[in-house]
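worker-3 :: picked Transposase IS200-like domain-containing protein
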Amino acid sequence: MVNIEKLLPGAVIHVFGRTNGRDKLFYTEANYKYFLDKYKFHISPMVETLCYFLHINHFHFIIRVKEKTELDLDHHSFTKKQKTLISNSAPNDEPESIATVASQHFSNFLNGYAQAINKQEDRHGNLIQRPFKRKLLSDERYLRTCIMYIHSNPIKSKLDRNLESSRHSSYPELITSQPTWLDRDSLLLYFGGVENMITAHKEYLITR
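worker-3 :: tokens ->
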């Protein structure tokens, strides 16, 4: 059983969830883009994202929750109440306040996406199982394994032939030097650079 970790500032967490029953999370290519756009609007103000993979019926993200000094409370995703909660929190209460607001942002993101899919597909009810799962990644070795597990999903599921051409995975973006919304620098530090990351992923695929 997976513990539902609080989204406390500074924590590195594997966030994942799936649809109810046999429902799809994505029906068209446009759905994948819309999902990530909604994620960037609601979630990126609260977290740095290290990696992700979007499957037809589930999703994976590894995130680091931002500290108060990293938050841009002027971002449109923050309500007046959320801004006040974080700004007025005493030092001892600050982590809990940030965790509460981060959870609200995830709820707004997932509920908003579900409503859009329900309208698109003329369906009703919950789309994604509640609560979405959160697992703390406090051990660096396990964190690296989790990153490689997430990136290997499209290959193991036979959705893509190789890591470099994965359509809905962060891997192709992370191995380039192009600008990215992902926290590439932090992720590469866990592997000791991009070449070591590529080698580790290839070895992981062979051994798994």
